[in-house]
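Ticket #4471: structure export looks truncated?
Reporter: QA, pipeline team
Priority: medium

Steps to reproduce: submit the single chain below to the structure queue and open the exported record.
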Amino acid sequence: MLGLPVVVDDDFGEERHARNSTRAGELVRALAMAGEPVAICSQGGLIPDTVAELAAADGIALEDVPSRKGSVWALSFTGRRLIAADYYRTLKPEKS
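Actual output as written to the record:
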């Protein structure tokens, strides 16, 4: 255990996202401004929309925005601006 705090925020849930589809992106930008690494866990109904919205707003072209179970999007920011969005289908190490 790392002893790090865990915060549950309904704004990263699909139900709240259905009512306000831009809120999660606003929160991601606010968290980026803090300048500390953050891990956000959510569902496939929110992740593609939010990643696509952030990328489009900051001029990052993404061909596809998948959200496979267990996958990860690594988003890199400079201040509030998204500068990179990298998708990892799995974090399992490749077999040698």
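Status: closed, not a bug. The export was complete when the record was re-opened. Leaving a note from the reviewer for reference: Residues 10-88 form one domain.
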